[in-house]
Design a protein that fits this description.
This protein is mostly beta strands. The protein has a single domain, classed as SspB-like (SH3 type barrels), CATH 2.30.30.220. The strands form 2 sheets. A 4-stranded antiparallel sheet has the order 2-1-6-7. A 3-stranded antiparallel sheet has the order 3-4-5, with no helix packed on it.
Length: about 120
Amino acid sequence: MNMRSNRPYLLRAFYDWIVDNDCTPYIVVDAHYPEVQVPQDFVTDGQIVLNIAPRAVSSFEMNNQYVQLSTRFGGMPIDIYVPVGALWASTPRKMVRVWCLSQRTQMIIRRPSLQLGPNQC
């Protein structure tokens, strides 16, 4: 029996859990994966960390094939497109725990340099 990848299901579950706990959800994306559309000026070591909190994005769609959203980088509006295969991890803001969604054995996940506010985990 061929089962579908569990990656998109886990991503949605982590997203819902993080948001339900009033935390800020982030995804770590392989910025060089085919079809990824992210602002390359913000890519470090081949990855980009994206805030996907409802208050930070618009036109948000997450399904079994991709994550798509609109947001702002440097005050400029930008559309983001991330195939599910490009997702390395999902994490709350503090990044105390990182749930890897990839079978990669070596990857670097850098913390975004952000100030923590109340209830933003």
